[in-house]
């Protein structure tokens, strides 16, 4: 039994050995055919186009990549298109008083304050409201001169009318109203303390008046700000100034009113830059009839600029070397040619091309950094990616 088992084992090994000798040439032939097929495929991938475009940029050459190499470095392309870029800007600033709507009530003559009708900063006053009463020897004398001129005109006739007008005008220069002057003439009696009224409606933002206090000629007694219209002053970076112009509208949001937006208009662009921040102040005007916007509030300004129609490419397609901007143009069959362009503004993932590229041209949008490295390496050493064993 043992001898028979050994014979069977030898017979099985012999059969297997014979089969191996018979099949091995087939395996080798099959592997050889697969290798030849892969080699032919790689050669076909590397076949250049009939007219190979040459690079016009010094230090860079046209790059040839096989299908496998393109997949390996993740080459993706996009077509340059003509269109208008919408650039969005976010500026930040503060609400301020409209300087053209801030009024000062100044003392036109020296004197003494009697009654103080408005005694608190932040208080609202309407146009024509009493602010304070004022005693001044000059004002008292001017009243007497007016009454004497009126009396003389009544006795000697209209020849004295110019004197009456001159006396009236003198009082008006001291902020005495026409109504007060008419009342003075009607009563025919001087007043020791003349009433001074508010020339505008607004909020008292400064007060230097106190009861029974002496004041000097030219002193500012009140500052009154009309807040029905306010300014918003925001900082814009130097490179964004070309997108901002007078009359442009913007959307304004404030942390104080997170669910509400306001509309502002560019009113003025200051003609100088801050040397440290490289920014320019831009002034916006906002209507504020309800007084919701208060000076000192922080605000965000959203601007949108519709630029002229140009060639547009993905932002990632442009390589900026510092000296020049380059895109890689696909000429098919794995040929990529560096081309110098001049880029404009960028918004989101899209960049303007001002010159150097026509609509419809296919450019590399991904993997161009590695292609550029190969282009420079080929220009300096004649080798590079095409010469490496990357396909195996």
Written description of the protein model:
The protein has 392 residues and is an alpha+beta fold. The protein is 28% helix and 37% strand. It has 6 helices and 21 strands. The chain has helices at 2-45, 67-73, 137-156, 161-173, 178-187, 368-381, and strands at residues 63-64, 76-79, 81-97, 102-106, 111-116, 124-125, 130-135, 194-197, 202-207, 214-215, 220-225, 229-237, 249-254, 257-269, 279-287, 298-314, 319-320, 325-330, 335-347, 350-355, 362-366. It has a 6-stranded antiparallel beta barrel with strand order 3-12-15-14-13-16. It has a 4-stranded antiparallel β-sheet with strand order 4-11-9-6, with no helix packed on it. Helix 3 runs antiparallel to helix 4.
Shape summary: rod-shaped
Task: Write out the strand line-up for the largest beta sheet, numbering strands in chain order.
Answer: 3-12-15-14-13-16
Question: Would you count the extended β strands for me?
Answer: 21
Uncertain segments? 1-46, 386-392
Number of helical regions: 6
Most strands sheet: 6 strands, antiparallel, barrel
What Rg is obtained from the alpha carbons, in whole angstroms?
44 Å
């Amino acid at each position: 039994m043992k001898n028979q088992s050994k014979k069977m084992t030898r017979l099985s090994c012999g059969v297997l050995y014979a089969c191996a000798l018979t099949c091995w040439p087939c395996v080798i032939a099959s592997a050889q055919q697969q290798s030849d097929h892969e080699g032919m495929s790689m050669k076909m991938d590397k076949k250049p186009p009939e007219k190979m475009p040459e690079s016009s940029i010094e230090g860079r050459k046209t790059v040839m990549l096989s299908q496998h190499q393109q997949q390996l470095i993740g080459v993706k392309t996009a077509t340059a298109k003509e269109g208008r870029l919408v650039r969005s800007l976010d500026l930040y600033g503060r609400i301020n008083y409209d300087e053209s709507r801030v009024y000062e009530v100044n003392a036109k003559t020296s004197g003494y304050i009697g009654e103080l009708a408005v005694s608190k900063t932040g208080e609202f006053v309407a146009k024509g409201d009493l602010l304070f009463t004022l005693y001044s020897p000059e004002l008292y004398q001017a009243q007497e001169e007016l009454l004497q001129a009126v009396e003389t005109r009544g006795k000697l006739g209209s020849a004295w009318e110019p004197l009456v007008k001159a006396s009236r005008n003198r009082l008006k220069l001291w902020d005495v109203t026409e109504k007060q002057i008419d009342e003075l003439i009607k009563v025919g009696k001087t007043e020791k303390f003349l009433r001074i009224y508010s020339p505008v409606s607004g909020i008292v933002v400064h007060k230097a008046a106190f009861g029974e206090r002496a004041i000097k000629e030219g002193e500012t007694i009140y500052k009154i700000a009309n807040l029905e219209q306010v300014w918003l002053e925001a900082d814009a970076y130097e490179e964004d100034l070309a997108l901002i112009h007078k009359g442009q509208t913007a959307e304004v949001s404030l942390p104080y009113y997170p669910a509400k937006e306001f509309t502002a208009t560019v009113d003025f662009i200051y003609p100088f830059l801050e040397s440290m921040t490289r920014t320019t102040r831009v002034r916006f005007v906002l209507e504020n009839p309800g007084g919701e916007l208060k000076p000192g509030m922080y605000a965000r300004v959203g601007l949108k600029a519709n630029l002229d129609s140009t060639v547009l490419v993905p932002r990632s397609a442009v390589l900026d070397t510092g000296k020049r901007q380059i895109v890689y143009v696909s000429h098919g069959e794995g040929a990529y040619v560096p081309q110098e362009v001049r880029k404009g503004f960028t918004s989101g993932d899209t960049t303007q091309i001002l010159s150097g590229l026509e609509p419809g041209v296919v450019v590399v949008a991904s993997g161009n950094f590695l292609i550029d490295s190969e282009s420079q390496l080929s220009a300096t050493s004649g080798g590079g990616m095409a010469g490496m064993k990357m396909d195996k």
